[in-house]
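Final report, closing paragraph on structural work. Over the funding period we assembled a curated collection of sequence-structure pairs, and we close with a single example.
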Amino acid sequence: MLDHKTVADYIRTIPDFPDDGILFRDVTTLFLDPRGFRLAIDQLLAPFVGQRIDKVAGLEARGFILGGAVAHQLSVGFVPVRKKGKLPGATVQQDYTLEYGTATVEIHEDCLVPGERVLLVDDLLATGGTAEAGIRLVERLGAEVMATAFVVDLPDLGGRKRLEAMGLGVHALCAYAGD
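Its predicted structure, as stored:
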């Protein structure tokens, strides 16, 4: 019998985490299942097969897992977008706004060359702040983010609109509205 599960079927919802009233979309259950993980990677990269992509950038931390697998399947390099202070060597940094304060992400200053085309990957798109910071880092090195890909989109939080307003395509496998 064929398995007709969707990616959403592999994602666990945890109520009231990290705060009361939040429905946390946990993709670690997707990673645990080989069929679910393969399905997600295949669907994340499908729209980009045959396009010129030079690197995949993954946002810390689950974007490393997904982005690394997508980069492998596309036979391109991988760029980790890390939290401040986690990369050795010379980096470029970008601040972004969180609900209560700011944070900083960084990449190595020699990880991209001008003109390279980058696919940005992460597990979840909420407000789009982290994704935008990653995009700004790529652009500061003269490369271009040609699209973004996420497993989960929370459209009510505005991230999709934010990235589309920057002229970027947003590919998401699951959308959870009204959360």
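Residues 51-175 form a domain with the Rossmann fold fold (CATH 3.40.50.2020). The chain has five helices and nine strands. We thank the funder for supporting this effort.
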